[in-house]
Amino acid sequence: MMADPLKRRQTILTRLVLVCAAIVFIAPLIVAALTSLKSPAEITRVLSLPTDLWWQNYAAAFDRMGRSFFNSIAITVPAVAFSILIGAVAGYPLAYMRGAGGKAIYFLLLTGMLVPFQIVQIPLFFMIQGLGLYDTVPGMWLVHTAYGIPFCTFFMRNFFASVPRSMYEAAQIEGCGPARYFWKLLLPASTSGLSALAIIQTRAIWNDLLFAITITSSDNARPVTVSIAGYASSLQVEYGPLMAGTLVSILPVMAAFLLFQKAFVRGLLGGAGK
Amino acid sequence: MSLIPRSRTARAHILFLAVPILLFGAFYIYPIAASVRLSLHDWNGFSPDQRFVGLRNYAALWGQPRFINAVLNNLAWVAFMLTVPTGIGLALAAILDRGIRGETMFRIIFFLPFTIPAVSVGAIWRWMYEPSNGLLTTTLELVGLGGLAQNWLGDPDIVTFALMGAVAWWTTGFAFLVFFAGLRNIPEECIEAARIEGGSDWQIFWKVSFPLLWPSTIIVLGISAIDAMRLFDVIWATTKGGPAYASEVLAVQMYDLAFGRFQMGRASAVAVSLLVLSAVVIMPYIWYMTRRVQDAEVE
């Protein structure tokens, strides 16, 4: 009983800390949203609400970034599918192989995670030009699939290792070959891992700037991140349209995470922990 | 004991690994080798002849304050990423884990910034840091601390700290979510047992919960270190490394030298230096992760 007032005070204190933190986390997004609806005359009054909703900012952003937004979709959707497929294809044998060979290959592929992409940037630029894929959407698919290999392999290998081995043994007794086992049994049983990886890859690919500025140069293939970076670093920044475009660029991945947050956490801990 | 001939399984395994290994060779190993070679040459990217200069690109870099500054910035970013977003994320997760009303809402709010593209983080924070009308300056003036307002992104002494603030806002959600999920995975009995022993909340957290969080901790630290070495987008979208190269990291410098000044050899030398730095920082982690997987299977 004696601890009660103390406990109450503690609860109030924790709530206070949480609310303050929440304000700090959400304020930039709210200010950006308000700014995107303000006319140029109002924009300098950061904390006020817009008197009229100035949708022209969104029209202006669409003029400058609309095409690149659709490029982002055209790049991200297939590239995510390819990269998780490659990760599964590589992760499967590595999860089942015994002996030094498998270990060495796994280590080699994992070292890819520590490679800063600057070390491949210049040769990649010339390679992609040589392949005739410079400034094309398929070029971006190829690059994202290839550079996703280390993480996707790591993730899928660990996921497959957590799938009960009895399934594999039962399939073997039934006379099911290793390839058939992978396509018919293991992949369909792995949807939770695959979807968690899909969310992680969607974020990584949609948000990428470095590869995009290296191997795209025009509205042919340029994703929305490049448009925003160009817009944000121009000398006379118009913050209204910039914030409008920024908010639209945020929405797809944010929505995906909010919808699949549980799968993401489970996949991350199940795939890499334990 | 396998009923299928070993060779058939082994053949299938090799077939499965063929495409990933080929892609890895073409997109990692070949370009890395090409960059190392290029770093020993002088080349503008167009002319047919590349002049061999030995280690002169490296020697030139190490004599430049601009290069040293970028290396120091990279190290500062590693130290920052390993501690600040990780620490705040852990603290928020521990506080929220006490069972507070509105938990879902707080969880979503803390996590939201992490889903945003780095360039959008840059764009938003350029506006927050706008020296006369930005949110930060306006708020400081509102509470009567206008004197503390700075030219956040324009002052070489402050710019890296300002960028770190933006990145903390961006990445804390990741650490928070992983720690939060980890805390939820800890069996209730462990905490109860410690409470019966008479431990205070503070003791229980550090003596019981935190050690059991190790799988979460190792993920967060590893990913933070990798992100710190790869950091490029936020700086590029916010300051392009300025003012006067003050906020540059090696990745930004490399891009400027290669695609801004067409000094491909010099740029490659920067990239190789970054790779070496990154290997020193992150290799122990990769080694640990591979080893741990083997250990887990031996059990």
Structural commentary:
The complex is a heterodimer of chains A (274) and B (299). Chain A is mainly alpha-helical and 274 residues long. Chain A has one domain: Orthogonal Bundle (MetI-like fold), CATH 1.10.3720.10. Chain A is 76% helix and 0% strand. Chain A has eleven helices and no strands. Chain B has 299 residues and is mainly alpha-helical. Chain B has one domain: MetI-like fold, CATH 1.10.3720. Chain B is built from 13 helices and two strands, in the order H-E-E-H-H-H-H-H-H-H-H-H-H-H-H. Chain B is flat and about 75 Å long. The two termini of chain B are 18 Å apart. Chain B: It is found in: Cell membrane. Chain B: InterPro entries: ABC_transporter_permease (IPR051393), MetI-like (IPR000515), MetI-like_sf (IPR035906).
Topology overview:
The complex is a heterodimer of chains A (274) and B (299).
Chain A: H1 4-35, H2 56-96, H3 100-111, H4 118-130, H5 137-162, H6 165-173, H7 178-186, H8 191-207, H9 210-215, H10 224-232, H11 239-272
Helix pairs in contact in A: 1-11, 2-5, 2-8, 2-10, 2-11, 3-5, 5-8, 5-11, 8-11, 10-11
Chain B: H1 6-38, E1 41-42, E2 51-52, H2 56-62, H3 65-96, H4 103-111, H5 118-128, H6 135-142, H7 159-185, H8 188-196, H9 201-212, H10 214-230, H11 233-238, H12 250-260, H13 264-298
Antiparallel strand pairs in B: 1-2
Helix pairs in contact in B: 1-13, 3-7, 3-10, 5-7, 7-10, 8-9, 10-13, 12-13
Label this structure with key terms.
heterodimer, A: 274 residues, mainly alpha, MetI-like fold, 11 helices, B: 299 residues, two-stranded antiparallel sheet, 13 helices, 2 strands, flat, ABC_transporter_permease (chain B), MetI-like_sf (chain B), cell membrane (chain B), transmembrane helix (chain B)
Short description:
Chain B: It is found in: Cell membrane. The complex is a heterodimer of chains A (274) and B (299). With 274 residues, chain A is mainly alpha-helical.
